[in-house]
């Protein structure tokens, strides 16, 4: 069975020479959640817009469920649902009519039972006869998702779906995404929120300056690239790191009461035993020792930073 989404060497250039996408290749299997992380201008929205047929690629190919998005546009597009960043809804229309109209745009036969199921899943059924203008910002975002799901697509793009919503609504949205996955919907999520990717994604992709720097299983990515930190908490503050400890590249923090040591979990030796011995030999009195695993945010920042340096 082909991947639900198969992108090969996708490029998008503009007349002024700007390259928004630089040979992006990506395969996504049915039923997974993949999060695309990247700063503003990285190419996330351009990538989604190209797959959805809103933007035309300069070169490369895209297939959705085996259908080429150019040759078999209607078949490919019918498999895609898109939730854009902007809330662009008719304010005086009722929720149910808004969702019903979207289903009709894809030529799907009327099916109020299907729409009821979608609205109930998104906690919108009780609001079905409300005008859009009467809804909160979070509810309007749910309507956008309902519109995108109205024609029962198998691939759903969520472009910054929780931008501008509070933490509680964001977590509600995560639960919605998990529910959609349980129904067999494949989800591609773009986000600025690292915790969003960490909470719900199966795989994480990092995109910067139009290039896909990596796509990897979330857990293996953190295990492969994550580092641990050892915080050596001292009884008394230091004016500076003792010369005898300079070789460890320690960082002073917590009002000069903590020495932070970073080490690679994949290394044959961590150097911790020798470090603690040298700390004691330097006459420092330990109060506590704490280890911390680096987060996905640390990894993301490091990758994008390395990419920027490489471009200079």
Architecture overview:
By secondary structure, the chain is an alpha/beta fold. The protein has 3 domains: 1-79 and 153-226 and 295-312, 3-Layer(aba) Sandwich (Rossmann fold); 90-150; 227-293, 2-Layer Sandwich (Alpha-Beta Plaits). It is 33% helix and 28% strand. The protein has 10 helices and 14 strands. Helix 3 (95-105) runs parallel beside helix 5 (137-149). The longest helix is centred in the middle third of the chain and has 16 residues, at 167-182. The two termini are 42 Å apart. The mean pLDDT is 87.
List keywords for this structure.
312 residues, alpha/beta, Rossmann fold, Alpha-Beta Plaits, six-stranded mixed sheet, four-stranded antiparallel sheet, 10 helices, elongated, ABC_transporter_ATP-binding
């Amino acid at each position: 069975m082909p991947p639900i989404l198969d992108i090969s060497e996708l490029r998008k250039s503009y007349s002024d020479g700007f390259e928004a996408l630089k040979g992006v290749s990506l395969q996504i299997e049915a039923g997974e959640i993949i999060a695309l992380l990247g700063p503003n201008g990285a190419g996330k929205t351009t990538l989604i817009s190209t797959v959805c047929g809103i933007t035309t690629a300069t070169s490369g190919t895209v297939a959705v469920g085996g259908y080429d998005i150019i040759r078999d546009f209607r078949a490919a597009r019918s498999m895609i649902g898109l939730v854009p960043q902007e809330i662009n809804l008719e304010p005086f229309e009722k929720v149910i009519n808004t969702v019903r109209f979207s289903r009709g745009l894809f030529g799907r036969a009327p099916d109020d039972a299907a729409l009821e199921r979608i609205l109930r899943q998104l906690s919108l059924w009780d609001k079905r006869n409300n005008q859009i203008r009467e809804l909160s910002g979070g509810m309007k975002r749910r309507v956008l998702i309902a519109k995108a799901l109205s024609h029962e697509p198998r691939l759903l793009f969520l472009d910054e779906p929780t931008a501008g919503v509070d933490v509680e609504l964001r977590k509600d949205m995560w639960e919605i995404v998990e529910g959609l996955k349980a129904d067999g919907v494949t989800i591609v999520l773009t986000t600025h929120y690292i915790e969003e990717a960490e909470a719900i994604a199966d795989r994480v992709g990092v995109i910067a300056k139009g290039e896909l720097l990596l796509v990897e299983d979330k857990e293996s990515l953190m295990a492969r690239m994550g580092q641990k930190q050892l915080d050596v908490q001292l009884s008394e503050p230091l004016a500076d790191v003792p010369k005898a400890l300079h070789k460890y590249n320690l960082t002073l923090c917590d009002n000069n009461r903590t020495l932070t040591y970073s080490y690679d979990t994949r290394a044959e030796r961590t150097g911790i035993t020798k470090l603690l011995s040298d700390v004691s030999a330097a006459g420092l009195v330990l109060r506590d020792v704490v280890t911390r695993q680096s987060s996905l945010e640390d990894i993301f920042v490091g990758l994008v930073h390395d990419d920027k340096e490489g471009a200079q």
